Amino acid sequence: MDLVLGVDVGTxxxxxxxxxxxxxxxxRASVPHRTDFPxxxxxEHDADGVWWHDLVVLARELTGRIVETGDRVVAVCASGIGPxxxxxxxxGRPLRPAVLYGVDTRAVAxxxxxxxxxxxxxxxxxxxxxxxxxxxxxxxxxxxxHEPEVFSLARYFFMANSYLAFRLTGxxxxxxxxxxxxxxxxxxxxxxxxxxxxxxxxxxxxVPRLVDPSERVGTVTREAARETGxxxxxxxxxxTVDAWAEAESVDVGEPGDxxxxxxSTTFFVAVTDGPRTHPALWGTAGVRPGQSTFGAGMASSGxxxxxxxxxxxxxxxxxxxxxxxxxPAGSNGLLALPYFAGxxxxxxxxxxxxxxxxxxxxxxxxEVHRALLEATAYGVRHNVEALAAAxxxxxxxxxxxxxxxxxxxxQIVSDVTGLEQExxxxxIGASFGDAKLAAVAIGAVxxxxxxxxxxxxxxxRPDDAQVYAQLYPAYRELHERTADLQHQLAALERxxxx
Length: 498
Fold this sequence. Notes:
This protein is α+β, with helices and mostly antiparallel strands. The chain has helices at about 45-65, 110-120, 120-125, 135-145, 150, 160-170, 175-180, 195-200, 220-230, 240-250, 300-310, 315-325, 365-390, 410-415, 430-440, 460-495, and strands spanning about 1-10, 15-20, 25-30, 45, 70-80, 85-90, 100, 155-160, 175, 185, 190-195, 210, 215-220, 235, 255-260, 265-270, 280-285, 290-295, 335, 355, 395-400, 420-425, 455-460. The protein folds into two domains: about 1-245, ATPase, nucleotide binding domain (Nucleotidyltransferase, domain 5, 2-Layer Sandwich); about 250-425 and about 460-498, Nucleotidyltransferase, domain 5.
């Protein structure tokens, strides 16, 4: 069989998949890796030790499984966390660890200064987003200011997927979607770099050639083939940011489609009927040529729930989930805020903090567990309301990610939001979307072709929905009334954790 290889580099692990040209999964593999937190607010990856290492391990494992079958890899594509910033020297060697996406908040001051320089309304209209810790342009500005000796040697700027494409082919490219997350450097209407801003924010740093995520950018070199086991000359697609690759894996591609990704963070990709703007959301280019999307993301959700599980010392996840499912909607009067790592959307506040209100001597671990799940669902509704305010007409919702492994979390989200959610048959993640993009790159499938079937549909339950309709305003009020205090506590934490 002719097979396509997709590889995705995540925050804590990487995944790979071999699929047929019509989307049937043949083999899959994963590998964990380390994420570094060198200082408060800093989150980094070793590009060679994590990104390239993982692609090599996964490619070798997966190609090794087809040695005796006669099957062959005919195209490859990689995606990764983003937007990230990796600076490399004239030979393409990384000069320092890669700065990760919005969870890395080191460039908050630079983001504020860039927003003042270029103007909030101009950034929204021309770039699609205001400045935030998510914007790659602010991270580049931070590196230029704080590490000038490194910046002076930089001749390449990469994100995770573009670095892997470079290592595979030698080509310096960046897909349009990833570029649209480099605010203030990319014009999403003209689909090009803003040259004068690039010269100001990144003087002397060549910008990559812009391509579509499904575009064939080159072929696997002899050296890359030797390291990875992928045959020399295999076509390589550009790839993109992982969440958008995952959206493509579940056929979220038409205006009105919304992907909700349940993971350590909750992430959203909404397809719109053209470029739209909202100060609380990230207006971006999509995966498909000419497509427009909104991106949004909570800073913590599953990670907050996992914090609680490890705090109470429960090794049995299934048992804790089962007990939480027996707790009535509203968690017996317990209300939580999910801002354990600040918040990204629908408000950008790295100093937001989590909270639990309503604790009593009768509160159980299962009640706290459910309250945290409910808090993430309130956050989902808050983001969906922002999408609606921006003119995104959500008509179809697809649930993906590890959190869909149990019915409880998606069910609570449907009850809180009032939205039905499709659960796809294949929930491998972005690597499966990469496999599709690889197939598109060689003309084996159309980018708008259906790639994934619907396995089930989660629908709101009227009784629980009524309870949550009464509690959602309390959730919003709890945050508004305690925001100043959250900031005071965040400032104290920065002092005491030094």
